Amino acid sequence: MLKIKNLYKKQTNSFINDINLMVEKGSLISIEADREFSNTLIDLILDKEVIGSGEIYIDQIKHSDYIHKNKGNIGVIFRDEGFYDRFTVEEYMRYYTEIIDSKVNYREIMLKFSLLEIADKRIKTLSYTRRKMLSFAREILKEPELLIFQDPIFDMDKNATGIILKNIEELCNKGTAVLSISASFKEAMLIGGKVYVLDENGLIEAEDKKEEAVTSESKEKLEFMHKIEKIPAKIEERILLFDPFEIDYAESESGVSSLNVRGEKFQCMMSLTELEERLRCFGFFRCHRSYIVNLQKVKEVVTWTRNSYSLILGDVEKSSIPLSKGKLTELKEILKI
């Protein structure tokens, strides 16, 4: 549905560097990118910025031609949006239904997003979460062939996250191509689909890395490491040593590992694979290619959709850690559930 080929664009604060991407009908692509990269990519797709070089096609049609003739087939939800604040929620949905001549029952959509209960509230009184829900509900009225969603679950509570993810999955099942762009790598992972990272180096897929074979010599080293009950992390010029039981979870982003302890993040010199080997005997579990979690800190296993799961920790922030579908069975065996 969406094809990006050798796309290049240099801006003051962002550099789209020779990226290639294909978003098929009914598929979900999730990209982690900072605000500038995210805005630039969306503007290029929507023909609001001139391409430096490369090509963009929507449904096999040059994007500028498609936008000119079929703009209504594309749903777009930005992180921050303007509304007719004087409207109530229902007035806004009814107005938009009439404007685009939608055949969708807008009240059914409101129900799916828990908006019927606030139908008479004016938009200016809504929280950020409710506004995001309203934006998504509005775009579903289009029955879009392509949906571009910026920061879908940013600053969302557990209930709102579940609603967003379930409706994204439902759209994909109906054949909509969904492109999600998040500022957080963890959020991009939780949203699911095929995950990429976009930065000045280009667009890189967050693929599973093949585990390196462990030689007998390295096994001996690991056995020795298991006897050492301190995990090193770095902060500025200091080396901190953490007791494994202090660590809530470890994560890897852009090849850099970090330890999360009491709501703070500390860079670690070891790879996630090394951390996994060292922490396994202390009750840690590789729940995702980019995450290792202390199972003693897990308070809840959440099923968002049939293919999206997460672990909720009992820390102050109630951290939500992605759980790969393929790891669910293994986790159940460990926890005997």
From TrEMBL:
This is ATP-binding cassette domain-containing protein. It comes from Clostridium beijerinckii. It comes from the Bacteria. Keywords: ATP-binding, Nucleotide-binding. Gene3D superfamilies: LytTr DNA-binding domain (2.40.50.1020), P-loop containing nucleotide triphosphate hydrolases (3.40.50.300). The keyword Nucleus does not apply. GO terms for molecular function: ATP binding; ATP hydrolysis activity; DNA binding. Residues 231-337 form the HTH LytTR-type domain.
